[in-house]
């Protein structure tokens, strides 16, 4: 539960910044919201969109009360959403709907996969070169002389040498 509380502050700040950014972009382009008389009533929105509230409740319940893993909880919530969709529509999705689901999901996931891959490369380089260890020591404030502020060029020299070592391929080990 401490992790949830610790993660709540950055999450709230993130969505606050996101709201402010969207508001600033809308103001810059002269966009205004709907008049209050044209806004849909919350009860009408929930009547049509209840299908999305139930999987969210299932997800939170599985994560926090039953302590399921995030992946298993997300999979279960997805199955609940699919079952509710079948109950609401009273039919299976058509071939065109399945095609749109698969290709649309792929298009949405591609940027996330690329970002995850790039982050993996950065983390891998930092682990292989030892740069992550040095950055951690710097962040903690190592008291050793060669990482002190009296010799600021040492860490850059070591990091640059380690990166060059990895990029030239000298770190490959033979598995024979």
Describe the structure.
This protein is mainly alpha-helical. It has three domains: 1-33; 42-92, no CATH class; 95-176. Helices cover 74% and strands 0% of the residues. It contains six helices and no strands. The chain has helices at 2-28, 42-65, 70-89, 95-129, 131-140, 153-167. α2 (42-65) runs antiparallel to α3 (70-89). The longest helix is centred in the middle third of the chain and has 35 residues, at 95-129. The two termini are 48 Å apart. The mean pLDDT is 82.
> Which class do the helix and strand fractions yield?
mainly alpha
Mean pLDDT: 82
Q: State the end-to-end distance.
A: 48 Å
Helix % is over 70%
Binned strand content = under 5%
Number of helices: 6
Shape: extended
Compute the number of strand runs.
0
Radius of gyration, taken over Cα atoms and rounded to an integer in Å? 25 Å
Low-confidence stretches: none
What's the story with the biggest beta sheet? none
How many domains in all? 3
Order of helices and strands: HHHHHH
Topology:
Elements: H1 2-28, H2 42-65, H3 70-89, H4 95-129, H5 131-140, H6 153-167
Helix pairs in contact: 2-3
Can I get a quick summary?
This protein is mainly α and 176 residues long.
List keywords for this structure.
0% strand; mainly alpha; 74% helix; 6 helices; 3 domains; 176 residues
């Amino acid at each position: 539960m401490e992790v949830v509380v610790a993660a709540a502050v950055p999450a709230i700040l993130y969505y606050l910044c996101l709201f402010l950014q969207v508001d600033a972009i809308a103001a810059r382009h002269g966009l205004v919201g709907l008049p209050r008389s044209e806004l849909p009533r919350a009860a009408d929105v929930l009547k049509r969109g209840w299908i999305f509230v139930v999987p969210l409740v299932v997800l939170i319940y599985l994560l926090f009360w039953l302590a399921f893993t995030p992946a298993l909880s997300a999979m279960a919530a997805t199955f609940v959403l699919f079952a509710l969709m079948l109950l609401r529509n009273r039919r299976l999705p058509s071939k065109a709907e399945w095609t749109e689901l698969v290709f649309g999901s792929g298009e949405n996931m591609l940027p996330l996969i690329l970002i995850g891959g790039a982050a993996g490369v950065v983390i891998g380089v930092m682990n292989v070169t030892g740069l992550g260890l040095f950055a951690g020591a710097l962040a903690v404030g190592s008291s050793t002389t060669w990482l002190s502020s009296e010799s600021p060029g040492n860490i850059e020299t070591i990091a640059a040498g380690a990166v060059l070592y990895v990029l030239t391929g000298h770190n490959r080990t033979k598995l024979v």
